[in-house]
Amino acid sequence: MEPRTVPVPSDLLSEGRKVLIALPWYRAASPLTTFSLLAMMDRSKYAITLNFGDAFITHARNKIATQLLNSPLEWMWTADDDMIFPWGDPKWFNTHTGLNLPDKFAGLHALDRLLSHGKTLVGVTYFGRAPGRPPVFGGGLEMNHELLKKGPRDEVRPVKWVGTGGMLTHRSVFLDIEKTFPHLSRAENHGVGQYYTSSEHDLHVAIDEVLRLCENGNITAADVVHILSRAKHKAKIHSGLGMGEDVQMCVRATQAGHQPHVDLGCWAGHVGGAVYPLNSHRAF
Fold first, then answer.
1. Is 187 among the domain residues?
2. Number of structural domains found in the chain
3. Helix extents (H) in the chain
4. Is this model's pTM higher than 0.70 or not?
5. How confident is the model at residue 9 (pLDDT cuts 50, 70, 90)?
6. Whether 80 and 208 share a structural domain
7. From 2, 40, 218, 280, which residue has the greatest number of CB atoms within 10 Å?
8. Claim to verify: residue 31 and residue 67 sit in the same structural domain
């Protein structure tokens, strides 16, 4: 499948607001998260929305994505409440994360960097919020040692999924998910799309197909078994009920024609009991 991209004109950020900075927070945010976002903000370029107080983070993400589609904005950038993003000051970023990245990478502006790629779904590189945890994207476990040893690099890699901690998504991703899986759409869910919600969506599609064929009297018992068996197999791959909401949305995006990507050069810190990865006080 060819990656889905969106042309990015050189004056994208001077044409008015096109990006919705989404804050699906449900607890107190790290002061470092707040500062890095404030330092990055230019209200002439970005709109911002906050959804908080819902302990089920999937609800917050769905509501904010719905806000995007109900607005004229083109992009949504989710920034979680425990992330530290580079915003143009390498000394500040390295001091408060301990990552000691080269200035070329520590001095990036995370959002401008992601926008420059023209990918409909792309995220920053960040690591799990515990000692020794791998980077949060599909294939991160396999790349963990290499990234910790060599550090960031100028590569945008296609992956199965990327974490929502710092994910840029074009509005077409959500629209195409609605087209591919109508039962997840705003129209079928009281105005709020269910893009991130865990559900075995392939089974829903198959059930609708069986019911439609039954209404037309054009199906046999063998057909039913074949359709539902195939859908059950796909559901195990695409929508296991233990799947994280970031993985679930990315899988649906892929099925709808949008390839997720991760930027291996744009790193963010992940705040827990410390800032991970724990490779502080060393330079790459």
1. no
2. 2
3. 31-40, 57-69, 90-97, 103-106, 110-116, 140-150, 171-180, 201-215, 221-238, 245-255
4. yes
5. very low
6. no
7. 40
8. yes
